Batch of 2 targets.
Target 1
Amino acid sequence: MNKPLHGLGPVRQEAAPLRRKITSALRRAIETGALAPGSRLVEKDLCAELDVSRTSLRESLRELEAEGLVTNGSKGLVVTAISPQEARNIYAVRGVLEGLLVEQFARQADGDAMARLDVAVADLASAYEEAVIERIIAAKAELYEVLCAGADNFIVLELLSRLNTRINRLRFASLSQPLRAKASIAEIHALADALKRRDAAEARRIALGHIDAAAAAALGAVPKNTASEEGTP
């Protein structure tokens, strides 16, 4: 047998894909609020619902705990709550990154990127009309892909992806507020118009206004006392 070059041994190739599927399913349930902040994660119930073993489930739960999405408290594992201050910080980071992104897109996107922008905005508008949060999240992700490609800046996408689950949880809270969905897509249409006019300053202003409005709606849905609740980091 050949001696390993780096001291690494064989890996179990069949286990990782299953763990990723379990982790993805749980992460999506947390994103959409199906597993609400503070909810207890009972292994027996989750194993039955997902039809997986406790060993596989525990591996995924450890991964989510490392990401800060799950907290081990006195009542066992619970879905971590997002505090108002954490929410404000997330929206502040979004403002910095997305303000830069739309400015770059307005200045350097080519005709193909502009055409893809139209398609992405139309798809997002359709998702808002359907009012299905999973569709909205997927359409938003595609819009970011288009903006980053047109701006030639995938660093922004990489940084936002690290906050993705938290952003989507706040997006769910924001869109749960009456009339927010209609206002949100109107803001996106206005942003697209500014981008197509290559008005970088106006695009930035609209993007920041969109984020501020989303923050106000989301913070209105975040309990003010989460800092004292179990499940808050």
Target 2
Amino acid sequence: MMPKYSSAKDMPDNLKNPTAFIAWEHVRGVFVQELGDDKEGWVFWPCVHFQDDTWHPLAKDGDITKARQICASLSAIHDKPIQDWTRPAPPGLTLASTREQISNYLKGTKEWLETTHPEPSPLWGAGWEYTDHLFLDGFTHFEFEEEMRAMHKTALEVFGGMEPSKLKAGLAIVKEQATRRWSLLHAANIKPDPKPEEVA
């Protein structure tokens, strides 16, 4: 009889068909995990998330379409939720103002930098607050870079009294996460057409 695993801690890495060896009653859900970057190339794995908060890849083809198809199929078969942070965050999760998004994120970064607490986990993949709405609006790479420059200027105005080294570290975190998220969205999704400008 084939063993059934209830934790990724017990699963061997060389299983040819991991889904056949999973005790699905001990699974929280499935998700798409992104790896790599623009330089090394993006890789996407369908993964299983167990109740003990461990996870295991279900395939390593690396293709985003295959990863999503596997997750969708397993979700339907086993009635488990899917998390796919490689897709743009739903518009309802974003704030109305880009400046508000930047300001709120930097406030959280400031609090983290001034304490010994670890950085909190992102709600929708690191960088979504100030990146995904630009992607959905069809912004170009140049327009995205303009937003990053505006963010930098806003941060200096809002947090000018902050210790320079901590402000610099906070801005580096924001830029790194935003740039990575921006690249990821383009690697994993078809970019929407730019929205027509509203007629005054």
